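// run 5 | inverse folding | seed 20
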């Protein structure tokens, strides 16, 4: 498992280091913080530097702490389809989106480019996809969050109806079993 956090400096070196992990990498988590200055530049740098061809056994990719649309803007989530598009392996079984702050979960959900994500996940190399999670959804807004997500993922669910789409208000329920908590 590799868990990447983007700070305020260059991140191209991170991509080079995780490339050394190679075929043994099964779980990749990428985290950004909504208060970071230059997050888009760092994500662009990371996206340009990483080569997913080194990870033929990648089973799970997590986009952690997705930023609040009101604070950062729509670019805060635009890297998701770009990264998913770079994955060429057919071993990915789950994709996880974790929202940064569930008080503003609807704003973040509206900022996500669902059509692009759905289109990418409908491609042949994602035929092993079993689960798609959206975590830290405000439980008081769950109905609307389900509508946003399901409407956005319609292309995927029509093409691959066996993919389970799950929304949850807690990150720990999904992530903790991985660490034996």
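// decoded
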């Amino acid at each position: 498992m590799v868990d990447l956090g983007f700070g305020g400096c260059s991140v191209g070196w991170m991509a080079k280091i995780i490339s050394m992990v190679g075929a043994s990498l099964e779980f990749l988590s990428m985290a950004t913080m909504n208060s970071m200055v230059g997050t888009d530049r760092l994500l662009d740098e990371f996206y340009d530097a990483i080569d997913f061809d080194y990870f033929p056994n990648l089973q799970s990719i997590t986009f952690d702490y997705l930023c609040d649309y009101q604070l950062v803007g729509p670019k805060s989530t635009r890297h998701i389809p770009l990264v998913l598009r770079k994955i060429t392996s057919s071993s990915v079984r789950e994709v996880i989106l974790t929202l940064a702050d569930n008080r503003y979960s609807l704003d973040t959900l509206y900022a996500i480019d669902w059509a692009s994500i759905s289109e990418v996940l409908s491609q042949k190399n994602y035929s092993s996809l079993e689960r798609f999670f959206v975590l830290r959804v405000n439980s008081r807004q769950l109905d609307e969050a389900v509508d946003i997500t399901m409407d956005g993922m319609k292309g995927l669910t029509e093409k691959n109806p066996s993919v389970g789409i799950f929304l949850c208000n807690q990150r720990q329920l999904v992530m903790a079993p991985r660490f034996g908590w």
